[in-house]
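Problem: given the chain below (175 residues), write out its structure.
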Amino acid sequence: MQLNIETERLRIRALTVIDAGFMMQLMNTPTWIKNIGNRNVNDKTTASNYIANNIINSYNINGFGLFLVILKKDNQSAGICGIVKREGLVTPDLGFALMPNYEGKGIATEASKAVVQYAKESLQLSALAGITKPENIASIRVLEKVGMEFKEMIQLPKDPNLFSLYTMALHKEAL
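Solution.
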């Protein structure tokens, strides 16, 4: 998938299996495990398979997925941000996660705003959702900063957790 989104501080591109080492690190951070869940991605091979079977597969099927967020200043991978078609949600879902050393610096908000603009202008999506655990205040702030509003508490298939569902219309006809 060809994708090149740029913001003031960030470059956002499609993930490839070359990013397996970074994804393995990200998916094993305490924040990821606490807020997203343990996906049992404990080595580069499993991470490569996860990228191929979940992320690249989403690009091919949905035309979107999770993207790598890179800092322009030092070319370091900071996290991921993108759009997920999630079982149990009608509307595509904005997702994001950062390495702990990049949290609290406005990177998730900057990347999310760029991805929302991409969803609206390039993908022509009519609406976006965002889900998070109700205690995840940092993610709630990001969702609100990009223009989402709390809608309801939901439960997703095969997941015992309750999530706060946030939504936003991207085009007037979605209201």
